[in-house]
């Protein structure tokens, strides 16, 4: 964005998310001068995609940067915040990208006078260069403590082509639960569906069968997701939605024979769809008492 200041940036650490955010900031004109990389994979990733960054420890990285991106696993975040707190102060911007934590986890650095932001990119990251491209148009769940922090967060995110969506501090766990349920659990369902469909296409579910399964599922998944996002439960289709208990039972039988560990998920999701759509026959088939039954 024209007129926005260019900042020196430290990335702690250069995992899949941190590297993507750091690379996006570099594309926007900021200088990524330091990175923490704990594993061989992270060091290789940083060397390739953050080539101007010197690899160092968290304290040194925090000491010298104007903008510090904390991209460590969520459980490690409080400890890293305590670690860098003696090395920051007024004029610094500290951003963590953990989905499950709000801004309050940054209180130890806020007490030094640093500006603090919780900004979680609503995106999945595979550790590849495509991750950075996906940040364009990506919404971010943002939690801040004051208007100045909100303005800075919106400015930084807009530079990356994203959009800041405010999340209250107290709602952060529910926000993260919803994101995980909609994304991570969907990924597990899709992985099972590809394996099942590949087994139906060819013996042994070889690579060709998996490619064909993905090609069959892809357009259906895209349309189903688009409809669900637009219309909610009204968009649900399939045997559980139309109260076809016989087909649901047959599905459970063949899934149990082909991929037994996937059957409980199919049962649970069929039950949830039946609850949403009032499919009493399916609920009876699954052993549930329909709502309102005597």
Automatic annotation (TrEMBL):
Q: Which Gene3D superfamilies match?
A: NAD(P)-binding Rossmann-like Domain, ProC-like, C-terminal domain
Q: Where is the DUF2520 domain?
A: 138-273
Q: Which residues form the Putative oxidoreductase/dehydrogenase Rossmann-like domain?
A: 5-121
State the Pfam families in the record.
Answer: DUF2520, Rossmann-like
UniProt cross-references to InterPro entries, sorted A to Z: 6-PGluconate_DH-like_C_sf, DUF2520, NAD(P)-bd_dom_sf, OxRdtase/DH_put_Rossmann_dom, TM1727-like_C_sf
Provide the protein name.
DUF2520 domain-containing protein
According to its UniProt entry, this protein's organism is Corynebacterium xerosis
């Amino acid at each position: 964005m024209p007129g926005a200041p260019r900042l020196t940036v430290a990335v702690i650490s250069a995992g899949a998310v941190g590297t993507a955010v750091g690379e996006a900031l570099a594309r926007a004109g900021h200088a990524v001068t330091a990175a923490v990389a704990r594993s061989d994979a992270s060091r290789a990733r940083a060397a390739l995609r953050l080539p101007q960054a010197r690899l160092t420890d968290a304290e040194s990285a925090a000491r010298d940067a104007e903008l510090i991106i904390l991209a460590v696993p969520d459980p490690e975040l409080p400890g890293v915040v305590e670690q860098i707190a003696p090395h920051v102060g007024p004029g610094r911007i500290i951003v963590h990208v953990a989905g499950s934590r709000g801004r309050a986890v940054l209180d130890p650095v806020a007490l030094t006078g640093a500006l603090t932001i919780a900004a979680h990119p609503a995106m999945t990251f595979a550790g590849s260069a495509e991750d950075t491209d996906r940040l364009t148009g990506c919404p971010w769940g943002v939690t801040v403590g004051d208007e100045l922090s909100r303005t800075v967060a919106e400015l930084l995110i807009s530079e990356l082509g994203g959009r800041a969506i405010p999340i209250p501090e107290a709602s952060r766990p529910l926000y993260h639960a919803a994101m995980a349920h909609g994304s991570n659990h969907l990924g597990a369902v899709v992985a099972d569906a590809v394996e099942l469909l590949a087994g139906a296409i060819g013996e042994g579910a070889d690579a060709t069968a998996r490619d064909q399964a993905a090609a069959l599922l892809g357009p259906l998944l895209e349309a189903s997701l688009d409809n669900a996002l637009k219309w909610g439960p009204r968009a649900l289709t399939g045997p559980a939605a139309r109260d076809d208990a016989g087909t649901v039972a047959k599905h459970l039988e063949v899934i149990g024979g082909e991929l037994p560990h996937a059957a409980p998920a199919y049962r649970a999701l069929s039950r949830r769809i039946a609850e949403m759509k009032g499919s009493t026959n399916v609920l009876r088939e699954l052993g549930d008492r329909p709502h309102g039954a005597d």
